[in-house]
Amino acid sequence: MLHAVIMAGGKGERFWPLSRERRPKQFLRLVGKKTMLAATADRLRPLVPPGRTWVITNRLQLAGTKKLLPRLASEKIVAEPAGRNTAPCAVLAAFLVSREDPEAVMALLPADHLIAPKSKFQATIRAAGEVVKNGGLATIGIKPSYPATGYGYIKAGKEIRRRSGTVFHRVERFVEKPPPARARSFLRSGKYYWNSGIFVWSAAAFLESAGKHLPLIYRKLLPAAKLGKTRLKKFLDEVYPKLPSISIDHGIMEKTRQALVAPAGFDWDDIGSWEAAGQYLAASGNGNRFRGKVAAVDTADCVAFTSGPLIGLVGMRDLIVVASEDAVLVCPRARSQEVKDLLAEMKKDKSLRGYF
């Protein structure tokens, strides 16, 4: 049967000041009325019911995750005691899923992406699940619409299978975030896809690859497959912080010969900054995009988002302004990716501890 594992431990630092350690990006309502986490869980149903849906989060966000996903059983929401990137998360999840269902197929996906329409997403995941039943580690590629330098790329090789309109290729190679000229060549070639971070595989096949390519992580987490909730927490407290921090791509997908890529049959956006989120806010004239209480005079091409206080803008151009209950961000639209750098600077000042 198909199980889903939602990776929901990210910090979403580029969305400060609304995003905080206990209120990360996936807890925000950036698009529509639902939080990104709730929208991700809803997108899986009825393809994957709540009884076969898992969430891996962290200790600071555990309570908030449970509150946002009341339909999930408590034991299906597992908290990492320390962040160790995606590979340990995936190995832990695979052990937990295979404990319940040795024949399980897993869809592993981030909690904070915008995907539509739901029907096409489910069709792609369903097709991938059918293809990998007997082996293969599939990832979903996104057809690039511009020469992005902030995404990793996947080069598709030989077509090996088609299932329900979805085409599966051997992965020829993974490429790290490229410089502009190289990204433009990838776009022209038509053979490269953005790496979505969405994976589908049988739990058994993935664990076999983990045992081969990440033997330390596999060996250290192997006991998790036999532990109940209370003992699992104590076990993870002892073992997890000592694990190496490594991604699924570096740890397994770049090494295995079983990697497949299927172009997505749906629209996708990881909404990685306030600039990216701005395109989904209501148009307010003069190129402005506002949400919340915003008043503007002689202002153009600005993004303003407030969860509380009124924002007043006079004579502004090309700015992002975000107000939370206790902090305000102001930056040029072209520099919204640098909010993460601002947070790193803030963390050097102990007096600002309560603001992130």
Question: What does this molecule look like?
Answer:
- The structure is a single chain.
- With 356 residues, the chain is an alpha/beta fold.
- The protein folds into two domains: 2-269, Spore Coat Polysaccharide Biosynthesis Protein SpsA, Chain A, CATH 3.90.550.10; 274-355, no CATH class.
- 29% of the residues lie in helices and 28% in strands.
- The chain contains eleven helices and 18 strands.
- The protein has helices spanning 36-44, 62-68, 86-100, 118-131, 180-189, 203-213, 215-221, 229-239, 248-253, 274-278, 339-346; strands spanning 2-7, 53-58, 77-80, 105-110, 114-116, 137-142, 153-163, 166-175, 192-202, 259-263, 267-269, 282-283, 289-291, 294-297, 303-306, 311-314, 319-323, 328-332.
- The strands form four sheets. It has a five-stranded mixed β-barrel. Strands 12-13-15-17-18 form a five-stranded mixed beta sheet. Strands 5-11 form a two-stranded antiparallel sheet.
- A hairpin with a 4-residue loop joins strand 17 and strand 18 (328-332).
- The longest helix has 15 residues, at 86-100.
